[in-house]
Amino acid sequence: MMDKPIKRIVIAGGGTAGWMAAAAFAKLLGKNLDVSLVESDDIPTVGVGEATIPTLHIFHRLLGIEEKEFMAATNATFKLGISFENWKDVNQDYIHSFGFLGQDCWACGFQHFWLKGMQKGIASEIGDYCPEHLASRQGRFAVMANQDLNHAYHLDAGLYAKFLRNIAEKHGAKRVEGKIKDVNLDDDSGYIKSLTLASGEVVEGDLFLDCTGFRGLLIEDALHTGYEDWSHYLPCDSAVAVQTKSTEKAVPYTRSIARESGWQWRIPLQNRTGNGLVFCSKYMSDDDAIKFLLDNVEGEPINTPRVIKYKTGTRLKHWNKNCIAVGLSSGFIEPLESTGIHLFQRAIVRLMQLLPNQGINQADIDEFNQQTKAECDNIRDFIILHYHLTDRTDSKFWRYCKSMPITDSLKHRMDLFGKSGRVYKKPDDLFGENSWIQVMIGQGLIPEQYHPIVDQMSDEELKLFLGRIKEGTAKKVAQWPDHLDFIDHYCKAK
Ligand code: FAD
C-alpha cells in the first residue's frame, strides 16, 4: 500500500472544503490523477463561512478565477478588514484592516514613530495612516492598476461551493452522490481502501481527503486520530446563524460586536446579510442566544436560525496514514478573524506541494503535520489575544477571559510589544506585524517605549513626517468611489 503510486484521490464531503479541494486537484493535477468527490444530498453542509481574508487571491490565481466573474456568481462584496466593536470595552471600537500602517524604517516599524507622535500630541489614531483602514471607515473601495487595496471578500458559501463545483467538473472531477456508510481499512496497513455508500456502491482510492465536516467520518470515526481541545483558551462552543434581507448599505468590512457571553457577526453581501452569534453555553442557553440574535439583527430574517455546536481545537494529526483532513474535520478555530477558508486552502496547497509520487512516506506526513500545527498554533494565539486583552469585566464570561491562562507564546508577544513596541516574528505566522499591532493597540496595549532611532528626528520633523503620511492617505482615499457603486460598475463591466 505504501509503495503504490497515487493515482486516485477520493474527496469525502462536498461543502466549501470538499469543492475547494476538488477544483484545485482537478484543475492543477487532473491530467494524471483521477479525482472523485462523494457527497450526500441528505446531509446538509454547515452553510456558514462567508467572510474571507486576502490570501484567497492566491487560491483564485492558482485556479485562474477571474475576480468579476467570481463576485457576480457569489453575490460577493469587498472586505478591507474587520470592525471590532465593544471588544476593548463597551462602546469602544477599532478596525483591524488588511493594510500596511504608515512607513517603516530599517530599524523599526511605523508604530514607534506614531507612539512618540501620540506622546507629543502630534499624531492621531493609527488607522489615519493606513488606506485600507480609512477606506473602511468611509465605505469606499477601488481596484487600481499597480496599487491594489489589500482586500478580501464576503461571499455566499452555498453559491461559492456551486461555483467551485463547476470548475471541478469542467476539469474532470467526478461527483458521486450517496451517503457514506462504511470506511473500509486495509487489514495490514490500516490505510483506507474504500468507502461503501448506502446504495452498496464502493468507491476505491489511493489518497482520501476527509471533508465531511465536524464529524470527521474518515479521520476520526475510522482512524481514531484524536483531538487537542483548546476550549480552556477559547471557551465559546456554540454559534447561531441567520440570514436577513439587507436594509443597510453593504460596508467593506465584517462587523464583530462583542456581547455579554460571546460576539456577534454581520457579513454584508450584495443581496443579504449573514448574521451570527458565537457564544459560550456555560453562560448562555441556546434559546436565549436565538432570541438575542433575532433581537439584534437589521432586516427580516430569510431563514430559520440554526444552532451549531463545536469544540475548539485541532486534530492531533491532520494527515494520518492515507487520509488528510481538510475543513471542519481538521479542527475548529472560531471565525473571529475569518481564518477557516484560509486553512482549507493552505491544507490543499500544502498537500499538493508535498504530494507523494511513489507511495506515501512518513517524512512527508510529518512535514505536513508540523507545518499545519505551527500555523494553527499561531492563529489560536491571535484569537485568544482578542478575548484576553480586554478591560471588560461586566459579565462572568469576560471576567473568565481576562483572567484565564494563556499560552507562553502569546504571553511573550504581549510582553514584548507592551515593553518595547516590538512584534515577535514567528515562522508560519499568517498574521503579520500590521495585524498584531492593530489588534494589540485596539485592545488597549500601548507600548511603554518607542525605538531610540525615532529621536533622530526633531519634533518638528516628526510632525511633518506623520502629517505627510496622514494627508497623503486621506487624499488618496477621498478619490475612491462608494463601495457599492464600485461593485455595481465593476461587476457589470466587461
Ligand atoms: P460542511 O459544510 O459541513 O460539509 C460537509 C460535507 O460532508 C457535506 O457535503 C455533507 O453532505 C458531507 N457529508 C457528511 N457526512 C457524510 C456522509 N456520511 N456521506 C456523504 N457525505 C457526507 N470560515 C471562514 O473562512 N469565514 C467565516 O466567516 C466562517 N464562519 C464560520 C461560522 C461558523 C459558525 C462555523 C461553524 C464555521 C465558520 N467558518 C468560517 C468555517 C468554514 O468556512 C465553514 O464552516 C465551511 O462552510 C465548512 O465547510 P466544510 O466543507 O468543512 O463542512
TrEMBL record:
InterPro entries: FAD/NAD-bd_sf, Flavin-dep_Halogenase_NPB, Flavin_halogenase, Trp_halogen
Pfam families: Trp_halogenase (PF04820)
Protein name listed in UniProt: Tryptophan halogenase
Taxonomic source organism: Thalassotalea eurytherma
